């Protein structure tokens, strides 16, 4: 048998493979949203359900005489990086917009709560526009030199800002996208808040477009953000991303013209297999394709054409470049934490399947045609893999099932709760816990960790951050994906 035929045969078998144990997607949805409460910074509300957490970082912004209390810690550390936080908010909003109808009322409410915790903070980051935008709180290297729970932090909480005319197109573009998307998510339930978000989104995009360049090009910001969240992909994708969400939120032809006029010069045709906190091109194409499906806006058809190429890339038998799969069937695109790519792509594929279904169309990949359910089967395979149907027989969601990572690379989860042991753990004392073989005392329920390697192996030690560190931008797109399958649990 030829190698190409063998690969295709294995791929088809993986898609047809039935789940060994039926999964509780409603439970996974519930826990995927609950996770965000474990990442909260600031003063926690009375409704807090992740009870082992306490208040933290209550003086953030003090060095710049502003209030930057709140928001999310993006991963297992205690820094607030605004760039990935904004992407997290965008994806929580998109989950609500596209898949909110599949969520039970209480989970929809909690998802909006998770989103609002982010957008309330993002409003603070752009509160001094048009002159200043806030970039980050906390110094990454001193923070990474310590292993402390957030409630004990004694590392510098320096806030960093960019002043006009300093460039910040990627950061401001992503914040504009987040606020615009959230304005849609809140439009029915909180119309006044929705208007506030949209007004600020418009203003933030103006800064992004007027002061073009990457936010880490600013000397005072570079050392704070890099190498952790440099915008390695540049800033043009965020300008299109912000414009696309503002077009959807406002319907204004100004953003339509912007998208049409800048598509080729911004390189959207060449980076369509990238999507995540850094690169937005794949998401731009899929997001804009919806308007072509629904309203047949011909000027935007080139975006839909590229979106089609993007989705076709998940089928190995099609022509052109492809996404890869591990031997166990996981969509794989090498990044720092593997499941962030899997989560983001699963969302895009499922969203596109929804667009196809609602317009009674199928996916055209050259001479090959695929029904929307073919796309959904690929996504279901990813979901089931994450929840335990994988060669390690391990759930990569903490707290789901009986077998999941117990040594998560996460400071607050790994150190005894402040509710149990009020005495502070010092920087070096925390490292003793970090290097121990003991399971984390606090279960970060719902956290989806970085995940396996290209050969499906997984090293479940907190010392191996690539495998065991959770991030908000892994969970955010999975909220929408879990919502769909919780409403369609018997889909095969």
Automatic annotation (TrEMBL):
Enumerate the PROSITE patterns for this protein: GH9_2
Keyword Iron-sulfur on entry: no
Pfam families, sorted: Glyco_hydro_9
Q: What class of enzyme is it?
A: hydrolase
Q: Which domain of life is it from?
A: Eukaryota
Query: Could you tell me which residue ranges the Glycoside hydrolase family domain spans?
Result: 25-481
Q: Name one GO biological process term.
A: cellulose catabolic process
Question: Which transformation does this protein catalyse, written as a reaction?
Answer: Endohydrolysis of (1->4)-beta-D-glucosidic linkages in cellulose, lichenin and cereal beta-D-glucans
State which Enzyme Commission number(s) the record gives.
3.2.1.4
May I ask which residue range the UniProt record assigns to the signal sequence? 1-22
Q: Which family does it belong to?
A: Belongs to the glycosyl hydrolase 9 (cellulase E) family.
Q: Which PANTHER family match?
A: ENDO-1,4-BETA-GLUCANASE (PTHR22298)
Name of this protein: Endoglucanase
Source organism of this protein record = Raphanus sativus
Give the lineage. Answer: Eukaryota, Viridiplantae, Streptophyta, Embryophyta, Tracheophyta
